[in-house]
Description:
The structure is a single chain. The protein is of the alpha+beta class. Helix content is 32%, strand content 25%. The strands form 3 sheets. It has a 7-stranded mixed β-sheet, sandwiched between helices. A hairpin with a 5-residue loop joins strand 12 (311-318) and strand 13. The termini are far apart. The mean pLDDT is 91. The site of biotin (BTN) has 20 residues, from helix 5, strand 6, strand 9 and strand 10.
Amino acid sequence: MTTKEKVLHKLINNKESLSGESLAKEFNVSRAAVWKAINSLREEGYFIKGTTNGGYVLEETSDLFCQSAMEDFFYSNFPQYKNSHIEVFKEIDSTNTYAKKLLNECGSLRNEKSMLSQKALFYSDSIILAESQTAGRGRLGRTFVSPEKTGIYLSIIKIPKDGIKSPSRLTALSAVAVCRAVKKLYKVEPCIKWINDIFLNKKKICGILTEGIANFESGMIDAAVIGIGINIENNPEAFKGEVSKVAGGILDSSEEKNVSRIELASFIAGEVLNILDSDEALAIEEYKKLSFIIGQTVKVRPLSSINEESYFAKAVDINENAELVVELEDKTRRTLISGEVSLCSENFV
Ligand code: BTN
């Protein structure tokens, strides 16, 4: 930990004012080094009040975004996941890319008896959180614009002991979990566009990119990285062109302006981990209720067959694996495991 991180951690965990001298003594650095750390934290946006006795205190209104704030908040609200490994970055290329790198560095995730390795057990339920991404990735090779301050970007690593049987279900359940967290904290009613987009008042406030780590020997998907990008505020400077037509922020539709980013990240991660450990059939029912495309005419862009063209169909159902059932004009039905659909009605994409 750098002096800055140590000072911040101490301030977070102390409601009383702390003198520069005591901090310097505790961390075995000069008072000038403490002062430099305090100034640098203030530049980052932390409200640190200087008290009359020459001490420092962190104001409660600070929208803290750091490792210790995330650990404190997440572990105290979700003690059942107190072993989750957490890493918080100010800036990163992509939290998904980083999470996959961690998994690749583990080597084999299973031992010779097909049990999860020590490293796999360590990294399962990990949370990688970033304040901004320089190379955020979306579905279908798209870029996910990830500016600082107005959004949060996180990836959750899941390594179930029996492998992953339905990647689409994992994405769908994560979408339900995000809706639960956003509803609880912001008192709004988000809804889902199959399979991974979350909308609020006809604007996309969240996208989810789930990626798998395949085991070619067993033919299983051993691990998943669930990447979640949330727009808290609209950001016209960052959301340009096509993105500006689709993207919106939660705060465009909510009166709850004081939810901190760490609170949001903690609740999303906690709800995702909870839902993946819960009764999946019930959660899929919730997914269906939150989905707004059932009964609508959609344009389907298939992904699995390269030469197949887009076509129109009616979305009629979502099955237990979160696959979309569509009906064509001749009444034949198709079950889509992947692909992209867009609504033909006004405004939505
Ligand atoms: C989409 O809407 O196409 C999916 C967007 C997923 C974005 C998140 S942000 C955190 C994680 N890291 C990435 O690079 N992408 C996902």
